[in-house]
Design a protein that fits this description.
CATH superfamily: Gcn5-related N-acetyltransferase (GNAT)
Number of domains: 1
CATH class: Alpha Beta
Strand order of the largest sheet: 1-2-3-4-5
Structural class: alpha+beta
Order of helices and strands: EHHEEEHEHH
Largest sheet: 5 strands, mixed
Length: 157
C-alpha cells in the first residue's frame, strides 16, 4: 500500500532516512531528527512532501520530495530527495509503487519534470530507475555549496 506520509509516520521515516544514509556509506552525515522532519512536513508552510509504503501495517519504504521550478518551461517540477525501501522488503513492488505514485503526483499537478540524483556506484538504483523508463542527464554537473564553504560565501555577500 502506498499513501501520503502522516504525522504518525515521522519516526519510521526518520529511521528509514538514517538507514538510507548507512546504505549510501555516509551514516555520519545524517543528522535528521523527528522534530526537524515533522516541522518540514507538517509545519505552517510545508515545503517537503512524502509518501510511504506499508506492508502489514508497517512502514517499509518512503519517498521524500519537494517542488522545483523551471524558468525555461515556466512550470514546477518534482524533485525526489530520497526513495528507500528496507532491503528485506525489496522486490515486492514497494519501490515501484512509490516511484509511480510520484509520477502520478506530477501528472495530477501538471508538473513538467520529475528529477532526482543517484550515486554513480549505486547500480541497483540506476537499474531500477532505467527499468522505470528514466534516462540519465549527462550534460549537467551537480554542484553543492555547504558547511564552511557556504558560510564563507555568505560572509562575502
Amino acid at each position: 500500500m502506498i499513501r501520503r506520509v502522516r504525522e504518525s509516520d515521522v519516526d519510521a521515516v526518520v529511521q528509514l532516512v538514517h538507514d538510507l544514509a548507512a546504505y549510501e556509506r555516509a551514516p555520519q552525515e545524517c543528522h535528521l531528527t523527528a522534530e526537524q522532519l515533522r516541522a518540514a512536513l507538517f509545519g505552517p508552510s510545508p515545503a517537503l512532501f512524502g509518501h510511504v509504503a506499508e506492508a502489514d501495517g508497517e512502514v517499509v519504504g518512503m519517498s521524500l520530495w519537494f517542488l522545483s521550478f523551471s524558468t525555461w518551461t515556466g512550470v514546477h517540477g518534482l524533485y525526489l530527495e530520497d526513495l528507500f525501501v528496507r532491503p528485506e522488503h525489496r522486490g515486492g513492488g514497494h519501490g515501484r509503487g512509490l516511484f509511480l505514485a510520484l509520477a502520478k503526483e506530477c501528472a495530477d499537478r501538471g508538473l513538467g519534470r520529475f528529477e532526482w540524483s543517484v550515486l554513480d556506484w549505486n547500480q541497483p538504483a540506476i537499474d531500477f530507475y532505467e527499468a522505470m523508463g528514466a534516462t540519465r542527464v549527462t550534460d549537467w554537473y551537480r554542484y553543492r555549496l555547504a558547511d564552511e564553504a557556504l558560510a564563507k560565501a555568505a560572509a562575502r555577500a
